[in-house]
Amino acid sequence: MTIARDDLAARLRPLGLRVRGAVPADAADLAALIAAAAAAIGEEPQITRETVDHDLARADADRDNDVMVVLDGSVLVAGADCVADEDAAVVVRPADRGRGIGSALADWTRRRAGERASRERRRSPSSSPTQASRRTRSCARTAASPAISGGASRPPRARRRRRRSRPG
Hints:
There is one protein chain. The protein is built from seven helices and four strands; from the N terminus they run αβαααβββααα. It is an alpha+beta fold. It has one domain: Aminopeptidase (3-Layer(aba) Sandwich), CATH 3.40.630. Strands 1-2-3-4 form a four-stranded antiparallel β-sheet, with helices on both faces. α1 (about 5-10) packs antiparallel against α5 (about 100-125).
């Protein structure tokens, strides 16, 4: 397990929730969860069962550490992935919103993106630190799409421009 995954499990354990890596058998439940979250905000799901199947089968996916599901007993209540460097997603069952699950998963995606970037820098020293850093920020920035998560996670903060004071 990774540090990010251990932290996520420790954060959700007091809520009576269990965290584990996603397996192909979770695809139908994840697709249904995504559809329910989209319906709750009056939108069509942007991710289908085929997309979930594809993501879980990706060769570069470390399903034990890059795609997490959150279970309440045997019921899948949330999921998150940080498989693609340029994209991450968080989805929480509408009935379970407001419990801190989405926030915990969004934090996990940021931590996991950092772990992935660090691992990539160790494997490929020719890759510039700037490129790996850019991928980390990108994954963390897109931690949750409102159309998928139902707005459970806040949008990224806009960068504030510093105003230069003019001598006057």
